[in-house]
Write a structure and sequence with these properties.
By secondary structure, this protein is of the alpha/beta class. About 35% of the residues lie in helices and about 20% in strands. The two termini are about 15 Å apart.
């Protein structure tokens, strides 16, 4: 495909549309706050408006979407989503955007799309088999083999955030249960752990900033979260046998030092050569991966 393609990233707080060239580089972009509390129709209207600004420069083929939630690959409908996008479960994203924009739409989970992008033009482009874990408000993952995401029987693979994790027993996961990795190793987890230690409720970003500024409690919370994440990643490497592990998302930089130390300490010798490194595409990863999905039709 020689012409650029539009990729959409529909997140709980921000929606981004990018015009992506065949080399995987964004050439233009539009973004806006996601009107999540206004319901799915408003979210889709915003996404369609941003995409429509870029479509005249794209070809006549499909556009791609990466979005929070579990996606039915046959229909582009959301099978399940958390409260970050209220009412998103059951939303026919592909059909609704196709009706608004007048062209086919292909939809994938946002972390799956990010992994596809990193394997294509990012930090995983030298590896045929890749595990990506995205650490943001929540925690998600994706496994890429031979350039395609292994989506699983229900297109829900990569739910690393729901691994039972020592140290998280009193912390509540986004799924509503306690003791999961997401409850400790995510932006929400950092905030919850800090509140439990101090009684003060601040954002995960504020906890990270305080840790960097020398707050000993914040530093303890960050180190504990990073260590839990690193140990989990080491176990996943032994189970999944990827060629590399990438850490992406807004909290990745904060957790990476402690995660890398725990990962190296716990990694079984047979996998000692498998690197853990930061993802490269930053906030454009999901939109780039969505564009790639539109180009080849398979996540």
């Amino acid at each position: 495909m020689s012409h650029p393609v539009v990729g959409l990233d529909i997140g709980g707080t921000k929606t981004l549309a990018a015009l992506v060239g065949p080399d995987g580089k964004p050439r233009d972009q539009r973004h806006a706050p996601t009107p999540a509390r206004s319901g799915p129709a408003a979210v889709l209207d915003t996404a369609a408006r941003l995409a429509a600004d870029l479509l005249p420069a794209a070809g006549s083929g499909p556009l791609g979407v990466g979005t929070a939630g579990t996606v039915d690959p046959a229909t582009g409908t959301i099978r399940y989503a958390t409260g970050s996008l209220p009412g998103w479960t059951g939303t026919p994203v592909a059909e609704a955007l196709a009706a608004r924009l007048g062209r086919p739409v292909r939809v994938a989970n946002d972390v799956h799309a990010a992994a596809l992008a990193e394997c294509w033009v990012g930090a995983g482009r030298d590896s045929r088999h890749l595990l990506l874990v995205a650490v943001g408000t929540g925690l998600g993952g994706a496994l890429v083999r031979d350039g395609h995401v292994e989506t699983g029987a229900r297109s829900a693979s990569g739910g690393v955030g729901h691994l039972p994790t020592p140290g998280a027993e009193r912390l509540r996961c986004g799924c509503g249960r306690y003791g999961h990795l997401e409850a400790i190793a995510s932006g929400t987890g950092l905030a919850a752990a800090y509140a439990e230690e101090t009684g003060e409720r601040v954002s995960g970003r504020a906890v990270a900033d305080r840790a960097a500024a020398g707050d000993p409690t914040a530093r303890q919370v960050v180190d504990r979260a990073g260590a839990a994440l690193g140990r989990a990643l080491a176990g996943l490497v032994a189970l999944l046998d990827p060629g590399a592990v990438l850490l992406a998302g807004g909290a990745a930089e904060t957790l990476l030092p402690a995660a890398a130390a725990a990962y190296a300490a716990d990694l079984p010798p047979a996998w000692a050569h498998v690197p853990l490194r930061p993802a490269a595409l930053g906030p454009h990863a999901v939109a780039v991966g969505a564009a790639r999905l539109a180009m080849d039709g398979r996540p």
